[in-house]
From TrEMBL:
GO molecular function terms noted in the UniProt entry: peroxidase activity
Family: Belongs to the glutathione peroxidase family.
Residue span, Thioredoxin domain: 1-181
InterPro entries: Glutathione_peroxidase (IPR000889), GPX_AS (IPR029759), GPX_CS (IPR029760), Thioredoxin-like_sf (IPR036249), Thioredoxin_domain (IPR013766)
Organism in which the protein naturally occurs: Sphaerochaeta associata
Pfam families from the UniProt entry: GSHPx (PF00255)
Keywords, sorted A to Z: Oxidoreductase, Peroxidase
CDD domains assigned to the protein according to its UniProt record, in alphabetical order: GSH_Peroxidase (cd00340)
Highest taxon of the lineage: Bacteria
Protein name per its UniProtKB record: Glutathione peroxidase
Amino acid sequence: MHLYDIEVSAMDGKPVKLSAFRGKVLLIVNTATHCGFTPQYDELEKLYKAYKEKGLEVLDFPCNQFKEQAPGSIEEINQFCTLNFGTTFKRFAKLEVNGKGEHPLYTFLKSKKGFAGFNPLHEKSARLTERMRAADPEFEKDSSIKWNFTKFLIDRNGEVVERFEPTSFMPEIEEKVKALL
């Protein structure tokens, strides 16, 4: 299977083939509106605005699997993001990133890039590590999505280049994006 073979749902529920993004650099993100990382919407929008003319697409997939931090309908989520963060990048229907209801997109992404580790310099890393370790002492060994705002960087050929955990800093991500553009 290839990334471009995968189909996702638009906000209105209509199918969208990821092949529609062939030739673009993609940053695929699972998001939530009520999370400590929610301010990253602002950083994602700045990144998108800076590089969209050069071929960057940010694909936003809201997910309610982590402490139910993405409540509400996709319309409510879209309104929240547009009003509070001025987001203009593409947002899709809510989906699951782990478990029985996991969307094939995330099965594919996780098969290509496993857990990258939390950045020890980020203020939220210690708490996340503590929470993850309490649930599973060997959490670092599996490729599951650990939290909201995990990002996957895809090159223009649809290859998964890198995975960034939510504690990654945007300047690092921006440098990787620029290198692919």
